[in-house]
Amino acid sequence: MIDRRFVLATLAGLTSFGVLKWLGLSRAEAATDKFEVEKTPEEWKRQLSPEQYYILREAGTERPFSSPLNHEKRKGTFACAGCDLPLYSSDTKFDSGTGWPSFYQALPNALVEKSDGSFMMVRTETLCHRCGGHLGHVFNDGPKPTGLRYCMNGLALSFKPAENAPS
Fold it and tell me: Using 50, 70 and 90 to split pLDDT, how confident is the model at 167?
């Protein structure tokens, strides 16, 4: 038997998401936060691929195990694909087995965290501090020393190899 509260919560979630999409707003754009880098949806669409726009500006998710960054082992920095803000050091990257690039610690002042109640669960969404782009989510099941798992969309990131690092 279907619980009435479940049906109402599902409809409320779908309605709120649908209203944002209908208005042409991403979750980050719908928030009251102001970011250092702000662009119109048209400007973002000119800069990003359709898949990157879906992830960074509409809080989408790429298919697991589809990102080449899962296999990136070189020393360097992972930055926001939207504004190039450095987000993670390669020293904090680990294989979580989830299919998305994962890190146990972000660089200082790189992220904004927000409560995300989509998909009938509460998670912590991570956004780029500079442009508000959706990156992924952070969970409390990561390795030491932080115990955190920043599960990121590879298309939301770019990789910058360290200078003089072996390839």
Answer: low
CA distances from 143 to 52, 103, 109 (A): 28, 9, 21
159 close to 76: Cβ distance less than 8 angstroms: yes
Q: Is residue 108 reached through a cis peptide bond, with omega within 30 degrees of 0 on the bond before it?
A: no
Query: How many Cβ atoms sit within 10 Å of the Cβ of residue 139?
Result: 16
What distance in Å separates the CA atoms of residue 23 and residue 32, rounded to the nearest whole number?
Answer: 15
What is the domain partition of the chain in residue ranges? 4-161
For position 5, what pLDDT does the model report? 43
Instruction: Report pTM.
Output: 0.78
Q: Does 131 participate in catalysis according to the annotation?
A: no
Block residue for tokens 């390669």: 90
**Considering only CA atoms, which of 94, 41, 101 is closest in space to residue 69?**
101
Catalytic residue among 83, 128, 131, 151: 151
Report d(CA 109, CA 119) in Å as an integer: 28
Domain 4-161 has CATH 3.30.110.40: no
